[in-house]
Task: structure prediction
Amino acid sequence: MTPEEMEQLVLDISFAINKSTIALSQDEQRWVKMAIQKEAQSIELRKAVIEKTLSGLAWSAVVGLGYMLLGWATSHGYKP
Result:
């Protein structure tokens, strides 16, 4: 393939790619932006739920260990 043919091929490919792009209307662009925002909010909600669940589990573990320690202490002579 000669350099001229290669250059023509590149130009033809770039023209075909530019021609095939589809422009969205204003309503479609707004819908796409809202869909992206909704997905981002959904991800943030999942992160918040996971964070709160893990912190709740950590606190319940601390309280459980304290309750076990209190039970052990009362069975070994501690009188609250």
The radius of gyration is 32 Å.
